[in-house]
Write a structure and sequence with these properties.
There is one protein chain. The longest helix is centred in the middle third of the chain and has 36 residues. The N terminus is likely disordered. It contains 14 helices and four strands. The strands form two sheets. A two-stranded antiparallel ribbon has the order 1-2. A two-stranded antiparallel ribbon has the order 3-4. Helices cover 56% and strands 3% of the residues. It is mostly helical and 415 residues long.
Length: 415
């Protein structure tokens, strides 16, 4: 059986195309409308049959399926209602640990599956009253902290939220450090601080490692030696710088969490909520910190890293799936790339990125052009193979490679 692509008939209106295929003097026009979807079914590619009409049942959209599932570090906010739901769901958390690849359940209670969207308002209000009376307790929920730091890596799917991830980690660290120093003394304080530092270092390195691999790795592949290492050290320095700034803000201003009554005191034990309030109150201060790298510590500041990440995503997308129509002239391609290059320089100027980063990005652009033309040539090679199998189509598609000299002449001529 031969199954072809579902598509509109692209050759409707081209005279004698069927005749060229069958070597017949002429071929009758199809009786079906030109825009019917078709599927080729039969012993060979010339056996074509229109699809039958299909039926469907309309289903109302489910808002739960439309929500973007983001990890805590990428959530746009964390309100009192979010904190209440989070603490409610912790009641049904599975306690345990991994022994190799086996999970050992240490909970004495039977496992109960609870879906957030199915929790009633009455249940939440009853739980709120319980928290108002009993609080959350003084013990820090380290399992919850580790759980909140999942998916802290930076990649092309979340790079627009890189700065948010940095602030999330830094503010959580500052709030927990302050809580430990206020709540514990002696050896217990030392032990709690050690736990915090271990979690913080592991999470910070995950963020830096992933940024260096995904973002820095792309620039390395475009001839920018040392980019990954510079970006790795810059991410580590940025997180530490933000953590120090949040810590200093707490020391100077305290934590204004907007808690207005005794029934909300439990929120002070929810460090996720307290960190969200800290980020909000210190937003102006941290905006300045984002563009000030400490001398000798970082090659790139937070503004540089955010800009480099988003631009890397754009380049990677173009290389993976070039949108350029190869049937256009090579001179047009050169002019299009020149427009992109000029837009890069203009956007970098508006964003206020460093001269070092600007030089690195512009230095990566010529290798990017070569890689892009490699991708376009690969697409053209597919055309050549298709034309070899179907000679009658060779005049309709491009089979000649990109003329790189013409592209570069047009590129530099347009700058």
């Amino acid at each position: 059986m031969f199954v072809g692509k579902l598509m509109a008939n692209p050759y409707q209106g081209i005279p004698n195309l069927a005749a060229k295929q069958t070597k017949a003097p002429s071929a009758p026009a199809p009786s079906a409308p030109a825009h019917y979807d078709r599927v080729e079914i039969g012993a060979g590619p010339r056996s074509i049959q229109a699809m039958e009409n299909t039926s469907y049942t309309w289903a109302a959209p489910d808002s739960r399926l439309q929500k973007e599932l983001l990890p805590p570090s990428e959530q746009p906010s964390y309100t009192q209602e979010d904190a209440l739901m989070n603490q409610y769901m912790k009641q049904f958390r599975i306690e345990g640990y991994f022994d190799g690849e086996t999970f050992v359940n240490t909970s004495s209670e039977p496992v109960r599956l609870v879906v957030k969207d199915e929790v009633s308002q009455e249940e939440l209000e009853a739980f709120r009253q319980e928290l108002a009376e009993k609080g959350l307790g003084d013990e820090i929920d380290w399992q919850g902290v580790r759980s909140d730091f999942v998916q802290m890596g930076a990649n092309f799917g979340n790079i627009e939220r890189f700065s948010q991830k940095v602030d999330y980690l830094a503010s959580r660290y500052a709030v927990l450090k302050d809580r430990i120093q206020q709540q514990y003394t002696g050896s217990q304080q030392e032990a709690e601080l050690q736990t915090l530092e271990q979690i913080y270092a592991k999470t910070k390195n995950e963020l830096a490692d992933s940024y260096a691999k995904n973002i820095g790795g792309l620039y390395e592949s475009l001839g920018q030696a040392g980019a990954a290492e510079d970006m790795h050290s810059s991410v580590l320095a940025l997180v530490d710088q933000k953590a120090d700034a949040y810590t200093a803000h707490i020391e100077q201003n305290g934590l204004d969490a907007g808690i207005t009554g005794p029934d909300q005191e439990w929120l002070k034990q929810d460090d996720g909520y307290m960190a969200a309030q800290l980020r909000q109150s210190a937003s102006a201060l941290l905006a300045e910190q984002n563009t000030q790298s400490e001398s000798g510590q970082a090659v790139y500041d937070g503004n540089d890293l955010a800009f480099a990440g988003v631009f890397a995503k754009k380049l990677a997308k173009q290389l993976e799936d070039p949108a350029w129509n190869v049937n256009q002239s090579d001179e047009a391609l050169g002019r299009e790339l020149a427009s992109q290059y000029k837009a890069l320089k203009a956007d970098a100027g508006k964003a206020g990125v460093s001269e070092k980063l600007t030089n690195m990005l512009t230095g990566a652009f010529p290798p990017f052009m070569d890689r892009l033309m490699d991708s376009l040539d690969a697409s053209i090679e597919g055309n050549r193979q298709w034309a070899a199998e179907k000679p009658w189509i060779s005049g309709m598609i491009r089979t000649s490679a990109i003329d790189r000299q013409s592209v570069y002449q047009a590129f530099y001529g347009a700058l």
